């Protein structure tokens, strides 16, 4: 069998639009057959090569924290040209809107604009958990964790938020976000406070600091604030303090606190603050406020603070570009190569995932299986638009020991259920964990006829509440998939605590 | 050349040397399948009698496969030292056997005359030897080689760590490798058979084994047993290979079926010397096995013992670090049962050693052979007594990728303790440093693979 | 047609997530279900249970679990002196017993009846002879040839054959999944299947003899593989475009290791259909096939 593919490389872009900076990278991913010639074909991404890094742009703002989407597009258009790529050549990748820029108005505008003009590449979106994970991958924490026994945390700190992701033996085991960032307090070189972000106010109040724009502040007090902020964050991350008991810490965490926090052996700091840690330490207000904010001071107080914990501080592979590199190079997966595709309906973006956990028991008990499927379809019909094509992606796990008999029954119930609950939907999407998509897809198609069209892929693990993007077919047999995990930490089994 | 023998009141007439050589073999299903085996026990004995009276010159003068038409024959012929051959040309095969077994014939003497031998003479004498003869004669011969470390010394039994995985999972291979190292196995080579014969896959595996060698400062050598062309592509892409590997056949046609020839082997030899990571001078790993020529229909009517010996004649050209016969892998149509496998293992080890090769044996069987693990225990003890350079180490003897059974990490450790054998000296020092071995015995820590995590 | 979820709605969703994470309760139950699914026992032939560590005081307990989970190889087995522990040794011998018995076993007649497969023999005579004389398993007996001529459609587009080969267990264990899945796949592609049957004592190259008799466009042989200790019921599918006497091995396309813990049987059946379709399109097979 001919295993030499015409061109094993696919282009992937990463775009990170943050509170203070915007950057883009271009990479290429090498697809190789990773199964033997006498097995079913299976391809994986075996190499990820960074081709181009844009300069770091200040995020263009219209006013306050409203991003100027039109200007973002101009930056990207220019960068695509410099990188020598046309948007339609991009097969995969992710756009991520991070930190405080990730407000509703910005997200809406930017996503609209990119979807219209950026060709068919896959668009992802903001989410603090996803952002933390991507930064952790880009900074090298995931990789590093495969080499040591204990857990590795990467804390990516930008202008407005800090996203921590913890990895153990190559698997993510927790994420958490903090209101910690270099631009939360803006000052000038004379110590005059220019602005205080609303998101840090609860913490300032809880900690007994009263800061207002126009007020002048001393270097010492500013340093004390940075220290307290750093200590609160690290105390929490190391399990020394419990948020529910300590008000300031609770005020530092926007979402649900992660309890318990897995114990960490090494940590690293990426993002703008990570980079500032490597630069000269500021000794006065003038050196602190070179960018008009507390960034350099926060970086160095955090570095000093981190040294007081029994946790090894390691250098990340990437600092300020960790998230964009993670988004561009680490977000894409490849489906199995024996799947059931319909080119005419691909790509599909932003598809919400409904998950149904099957088991040998369910497969052997038709009534229970029928009930479980009906329940899932009912839920889907309540949650999502019934005439959308497709309304959602149905994720199926537990099919690895499925027999032909069970597959027939499953296909009957799936096709009937879909037609009952989604009579005007034209596309059904199924995502299986185990290698069964071609058999299941063929079974479904036989039952469905022309409508709905069936897309059935496998070897992708998704969870309830994820969103997925399905790219266009590669070599006609498989597709790139980006899984967007919006809420991560609540459902990951935290082990070894 | 006399090709007749009178036995039991009957005259046995053989038409040529090829027939004598085939019929003088102990019973092998492969010779029967090829239709060249002795009809019965008497005919077998008649052939042995005829063979015993032939001189070494008779054998050389009647090539089974002409050097003009077969490049393996050419390689073997060109390696003969004429002066030494002249000294022994009039020996009968019987005399040659007795010379090898005599007490005053030691390693040095055998090493010298081996330079005047062809592979066919070596095969001929093996056919006249009993199993214990094969053990006794082989035990005299010491062949040491050096890649990154030296193995083959008298009193040393090395082991190949063979941590194969059914889908080439690097993590899974490392798991089996850690287990091997924790039992003191891996001094011959960290050698992996890949499922996927691609340069990328070979490179990834070589990198992974090299990484462990560097991390733990393991004095050994790595190798991936893909096709030679694939390894060459991987090395060109920068893969760190201490050695190159190839399976050999005893005829040019057999090698064509393997997708190789002498020119390609020469090229690879040049490459591993220039671009390999091993210290040398021995930078090759070869595997062979009785029956492979017949299975490729490239046997030219020659018996499988002689063909096997010819593989060694070809291997010698490249001064390999290790060679092993995968003795029970090819199937019951070539070696039917444990009796045949044990015989073939002893023959191959002896024939390789007599051609000055650093012989190891993959003491193994497949599940459709009439053999089981007890038979492997027996053959392994015999080979340890014969001074085999190394045997194969697979977790619990079960290779979950190649689907056959060999010898285990436990078996190598047992043979060492039982027969007072040691790992290769540099490797043993390292085992002591790691706390796995003390005074040649495994410590209580041995057997815990997490030492290497 | 290709309507995706409106961006506004997605953005709302994202923002909602950012402000308030998904309720923990629902997702936690998912987690526990998932755990349950994972720890469900896999096919356990001998009844020895899952591989587990025997190492008494490993330097790193969790690390050992990780190693054992990463490979089907028998590791973490520990020792008595330098010898294996009794239970590990017996487990190994049990797996070998299963493998040996599957070589000498026979395919269940009721299974063949279920799929309406009639039987022909090769000249193998008996299992011992089958093992020693592979050439005998490549030729169908005269009686068998007659039966084929009488019962089978000549010159079919696709000919399907089943043979015990080296493992009757492989057929008993996988045919019920692979075979109907294959037929569905062929039907989905609109391919026409001839009269399938069972060859007792067949070798792979029996394809060539039957190819000569029936002259199919493509032929697929589902045959039991040489059993291993991991699985004694592993099946292969050998496929060939116009197999005839003298076909070389490199003209055959193979999918091997088909069993529940290897190449998944249902997906294998579906994929074999695709391979056969590709062979018909490209009018070739084996190394020349571009798939």
Write up what this structure looks like.
- The complex is a heterotrimer of chains A (497), B (453) and C (291).
- Chain A has 497 residues and is α/β, with parallel strands linked by helices.
- Chain A has three domains: 123 residues, ATPase, nucleotide binding domain (Nucleotidyltransferase, domain 5, 2-Layer Sandwich); 191 residues, Nucleotidyltransferase, domain 5 (2-Layer Sandwich); 143 residues, no CATH class.
- Chain A contains 15 helices and 21 strands.
- In chain A, strand 17, helix 14 and strand 18 form a beta-alpha-beta unit.
- In chain A, helix 6 packs across helix 10, helix 13 packs parallel to helix 14 and helix 14 packs across helix 15.
- The C terminus of chain A is likely disordered.
- Chain B has 453 residues and is of the alpha/beta class.
- Chain B has two domains: 137 residues, Orthogonal Bundle (Annexin V, domain 1), CATH 1.10.220.70; 308 residues, TIM Barrel.
- Chain B is built from 21 helices and 16 strands.
- In chain B, strand 11, helix 19 and strand 12 form a beta-alpha-beta unit.
- The longest helix of chain B is centred in the middle third of the chain and has 18 residues.
- Chain B is globular.
- Chain C is an alpha/beta fold.
- Chain C folds into two domains: 44 residues, no CATH class; 180 residues, 3-Layer(aba) Sandwich (Rossmann fold), CATH 3.40.50.
- In chain C, 43% of the residues lie in helices and 12% in strands.
- Chain C has a six-stranded mixed sheet, with helices on both faces.
- The radius of gyration of chain C is 25 Å and the shape is globular.
- Chains in contact: A-B, A-C, B-C.
